[in-house]
């Protein structure tokens, strides 16, 4: 109290984050949380191969497939230079034999995403796998598909989500290490949601999926074992570590509530760096953001890490920098030598406790109004997340939230023109935190 010279302690030394959680200047053992001990050092099963480092995650390269031959060259080059996983974004029919020529997918993780028919995508991929003689146990990865998130972008009926999910689960059943369904928390993050909103609405949709698929003969055990977490690490370093760790805790606790037996280490978490945090003005600052976010992802317990390019391009230099962030954190910062460096942290476990409490309370509120779909149809979810987004964007616009390379130390060179997403009232589309500022300060036409 002497150091702050009589000023109010709460006003001077504490801060309140966007979810209303008060962050104290220091934490002690009294702030630790009982019940989280089982989630420490539980990011993945212990390695079976002797001599390899204890902490494992896949360095995933992202490829937007337009030309199979070009993408094949890009994939092979990236695999020769440090990645051990591929994330393929596909729109339309694909010649898999050309795209994956000379790619040993038995030894890497493969993630698929499409804005088209997910069933057609999987069936064509499955046909190629069978023709190539790849055994079901040799396929690792998953499909980043969340029907509820698709309903936030395109008109989609709830029953269609259940039918597609049930069909995927039936078709992928023979592939034990390939998960066909994801909970795409990342979409809520990209739309501007807070951490609690992101987790609450993501898990609310998953609860609705579990309940809906039971009517289609899909047991909770089948769903939990075939679903994974897809989430993004944002700019609040410690907050994002706590968010990702909380996702593992809630997923595991939901499994327990549904009578599903699984270890916390069996929860699969795919983490991408955030598009929401990036600036288009001084793109080099995004390298720092990507590095911080990748560290948060690793400390939070990612099993696969996809670092985006800092300048939104597919240029050789940009993709090299993206894949090398994960490599440097592993090979030079030695983040693979300790499984869970944040385990037992007074601050982080206190923050996780707060997040868990707020997410639980929010889930109860969502269930009271009828669940995720009712929150979607009534517009409550969209309005709530838009309000959080607007608050963040206005803070950047007014300079209250400093963003290096945008509203602080902006470059003098020509600034790219940007357009605001044309979002209908029922939609939630991806934005960026600096987008409104950039739009209002771009070069005159």
UniProtKB/TrEMBL annotation:
<feature type="domain" description="Methylmalonyl-CoA mutase alpha/beta chain catalytic">
    <location>
        <begin position="90"/>
        <end position="422"/>
    </location>
</feature>
<protein>
    <submittedName>
        <fullName>Methylmalonyl-CoA mutase</fullName>
    </submittedName>
</protein>
<dbReference type="InterPro" id="IPR016176">
    <property type="entry name" value="Cbl-dep_enz_cat"/>
</dbReference>
<dbReference type="GO" id="GO:0016866">
    <property type="term" value="F:intramolecular transferase activity"/>
</dbReference>
<dbReference type="Pfam" id="PF01642">
    <property type="entry name" value="MM_CoA_mutase"/>
</dbReference>
<dbReference type="InterPro" id="IPR006099">
    <property type="entry name" value="MeMalonylCoA_mutase_a/b_cat"/>
</dbReference>
<dbReference type="GO" id="GO:0031419">
    <property type="term" value="F:cobalamin binding"/>
</dbReference>
């Amino acid at each position: 109290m002497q150091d702050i010279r009589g000023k109010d302690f709460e006003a001077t030394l504490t801060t309140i984050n966007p979810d209303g959680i008060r962050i104290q200047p220091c934490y002690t053992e009294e702030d630790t949380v009982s019940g989280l001990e089982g989630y420490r050092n539980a990011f993945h099963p212990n390695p079976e191969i002797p001599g390899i480092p204890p902490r494992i995650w896949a360095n995933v390269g992202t490829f937007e497939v337009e030309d199979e031959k070009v993408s094949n060259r890009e994939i092979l080059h990236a695999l020769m230079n440090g990645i051990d996983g591929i994330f393929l974004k596909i729109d339309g029919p694909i010649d898999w034999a050309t795209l994956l020529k000379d790619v040993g997918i038995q030894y890497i993780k493969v993630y698929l995403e499409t804005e088209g028919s997910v069933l057609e995508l999987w069936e064509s991929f499955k046909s190629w796998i069978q023709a190539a003689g790849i055994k079901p146990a040799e396929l690792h990865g998953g499909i980043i598909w969340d029907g509820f998130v698709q309903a936030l972008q395109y008109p989609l009926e709830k029953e269609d989500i259940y039918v597609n999910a049930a069909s995927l689960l039936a078709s992928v059943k023979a592939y034990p290490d390939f998960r066909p369904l994801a909970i795409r928390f990342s979409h809520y993050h990209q739309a501007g949601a807070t951490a609690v909103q992101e987790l609450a609405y993501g898990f609310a949709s998953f609860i609705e999926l579990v309940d809906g698929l039971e009517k289609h003969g899909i047991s909770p055990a089948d769903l939990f074992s075939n679903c994974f977490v897809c989430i993004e690490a944002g700019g609040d370093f410690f907050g994002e570590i706590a968010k990702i760790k909380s996702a593992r805790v809630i997923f595991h606790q939901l499994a327990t509530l549904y009578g599903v037996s699984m270890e916390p280490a069996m929860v699969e978490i795919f983490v991408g760096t955030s598009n929401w945090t990036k600036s288009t003005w001084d793109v080099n600052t995004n390298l720092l953001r990507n590095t911080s976010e990748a560290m948060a992802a690793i400390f939070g317990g990612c099993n696969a890490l996809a670092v985006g390019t800092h300048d939104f391009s597919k240029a050789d230099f940009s993709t090299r920098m993206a894949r090398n962030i994960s490599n440097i954190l592993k090979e030079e910062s030695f983040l693979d030598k300790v499984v869970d460096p944040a385990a037992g942290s007074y601050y982080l476990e206190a923050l996780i406790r707060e997040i868990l409490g707020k997410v639980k309370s929010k889930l109860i509120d969502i269930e009271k109004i009828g669940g995720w779909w009712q929150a979607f149809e009534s517009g409550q979810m969209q309005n709530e997340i838009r309000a959080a987004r607007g608050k963040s964007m206005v803070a950047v616009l007014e300079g209250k939230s400093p963003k290096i390379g945008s509203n602080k130390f902006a470059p003098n060179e020509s600034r790219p023109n940007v357009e605001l997403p044309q979002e209908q009232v029922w939609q939630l589309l991806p934005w960026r935190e600096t987008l409104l500022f950039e739009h209002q300060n771009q070069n005159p036409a």
